[in-house]
User: Which sequence fits this backbone?
């Protein structure tokens, strides 16, 4: 058997694929803004016949993140139970202690990650994370 004297070649690529007209399998309800110091409710709809798992999760990301598995601010396990039998609507809550306090980055997005399909099934529209109004009032007196 002959052996090659060539070393293996590896490379990293960043692909940007157009998704115009594509229908996501998970759609997030619009989020106007969330406040730090308060629990945040996330509502989303999963398309019928989409394979889900108890290992699926929803991550909160800064708007211009680059790595789905490392760049999350926080995450919650996706809810497998529908809010009603007629719809495929689900809801999860991100506890306030897991939301960032500094709010340096004002735009965030949510991503639904499927462990079964090993990919992202849906991304929310960007929204703002604002400081809690009581925190703002307290900082004015300092």
Assistant:
């Amino acid at each position: 058997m002959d052996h090659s004297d060539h070393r293996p070649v590896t490379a990293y690529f960043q692909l940007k694929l157009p998704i115009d007209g594509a229908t996501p399998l998970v759609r997030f309800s619009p989020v106007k803004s969330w406040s730090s110091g308060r629990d945040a409710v996330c509502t989303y709809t999963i398309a019928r016949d989409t394979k889900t798992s108890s290992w699926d999760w929803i991550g909160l990301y800064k708007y211009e993140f680059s790595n789905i598995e490392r760049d999350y601010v926080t995450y919650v396990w996706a809810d497998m139970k529908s809010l009603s039998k007629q719809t495929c609507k689900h809801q999860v809550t991100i506890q306030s202690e897991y939301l960032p306090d500094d709010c340096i980055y004002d735009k965030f997005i949510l991503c639904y990650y499927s462990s079964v399909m090993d990919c992202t099934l849906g991304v929310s529209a960007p929204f703002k994370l604002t400081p809690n109004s009581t925190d703002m009032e307290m900082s004015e007196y300092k």
User: Anything to note?
Assistant: Residues 135-142 have pLDDT under 50 and may be disordered. The chain is about 5% helix and 35% strand.
